[in-house]
Amino acid sequence: MTVLGWLQQPAVLPWVAAAFGLCIGSFLNVVIHRLPKMMEREWRAECAELERQARGEAAPESPAVETYNLVVPGSRCPSCGHRIAAWENIPLASWLALRGRCSACKARIPAKYPLVELLAAVGAAYSAWRFGPSLTALGAALFVWFTIALSFIDQETGLLPDDLTLPLLWAGLVLNLGGAFVPMAEAVLGAVAGYLSLWLVYWAYKLATGKEGMGYGDFKMNAAVGAFLGWKMLPVVILLSSLVGLAFGALQMFAAKGRWDGAFRFHFGPYIAIAGVVALYWGGSLVRWYLGVP
Question: Last residue of some domain: 90, 118, 146?
Answer without folding.
Answer: 118
